[in-house]
């Protein structure tokens, strides 16, 4: 919980999930209070550092780039692992999950095309890159022997994987059907009280 008198964070982004979904989920998980400013129009990004959003303002700290924000919040709230080994594993997971997320966003079926062509491209992506990526995630997850990606407690990469799995489920509803471990993980994270409250609040977009 946030201490009385602690400054409320301010988050600026568009009214979509996008790269800010993992930031909002981590804020929900940690219970940090924040005020969100929703901007309209991509041209407004030029007024921010490097022309990038989301932007987090935490007192004198002002950070753009979603992954930088996530790392800052994870350090602030002690969800970045408890040892050097766990922190390194969190970084490894973050890079891998970001790679899969970017592949999903950049997939050919996300571009304008006919319904028939879109179905073909989705099937190709699902059977090719995505199936291999999800199998790899499951193999590494299984090595930890807990319900978490790193160590024996929640870290920020758990919310990152949850965000990714929900994005995959929206675009390719059949993709997770053969990965019961990922379905169990997604459903477990979604039932966490703070995550459940956030997902049902309308603040997630």
| Run of helices and strands | EHEEEHHHHHH
- List the strand order in the largest sheet: 2-1-3-4
Number of helices, where a helix is a run of at least 4 consecutive DSSP H or I residues: 7
Count the beta strands.
4
**Class from helix and strand fractions:** alpha+beta
Mean of all residue-level pLDDT scores: 88
Global shape: globular
- Please report which band the strand proportion falls in: under 5%, 5-15%, 15-25%, 25-35%, 35-45% or over 45%: 5-15%
- Kindly state the percentage of residues in helix: 40-55%
How many structural domains does the protein architecture include?
2
The CATH C-level name of the largest domain is: Mainly Alpha
How far the N terminus sits from the C terminus, by CA atoms, comes to 24 Å
Low-pLDDT windows of residues: none
**CATH-defined fold name of the largest domain:** Glutathione S-transferase Yfyf (Class Pi), Chain A, domain 2
Radius of gyration: 17 Å
The description of the largest β-sheet is: 4 strands, mixed
Family: Belongs to the GST superfamily. Mu family.
GO molecular function: glutathione transferase activity
Protein name: glutathione transferase
EC number: 2.5.1.18
């Amino acid at each position: 919980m946030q201490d009385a008198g602690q400054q409320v964070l301010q988050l600026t982004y568009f009214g979509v999930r996008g790269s800010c979904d993992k930031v909002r989920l981590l804020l929900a998980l940690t219970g940090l209070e924040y005020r969100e400013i929703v901007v309209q129009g991509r041209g407004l990004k030029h007024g921010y550092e490097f022309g990038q959003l989301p932007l987090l303002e935490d007192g004198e700290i002002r950070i753009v780039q979603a992954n930088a924000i996530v790392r800052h919040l994870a350090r602030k709230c002690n969800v970045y692992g408890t040892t050097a080994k766990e922190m390194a594993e969190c970084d490894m997971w973050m890079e891998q999950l970001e790679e899969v997320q970017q592949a999903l966003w950049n997939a050919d079926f996300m571009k304008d095309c006919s319904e028939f062509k879109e179905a073909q491209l989705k099937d190709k992506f699902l059977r090719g890159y995505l199936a291999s990526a999800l199998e790899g995630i499951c193999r590494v997850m299984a090595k930890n022997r807990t319900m978490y990606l790193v160590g024996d407690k929640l870290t920020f990469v758990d919310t990152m994987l949850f965000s990714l799995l929900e994005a995959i489920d929206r675009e390719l509803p059949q993709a997770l059907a053969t990965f019961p471990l990922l379905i169990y993980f997604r459903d477990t994270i979604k039932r966490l009280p703070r995550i459940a409250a956030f997902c049902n609040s309308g603040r997630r977009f």
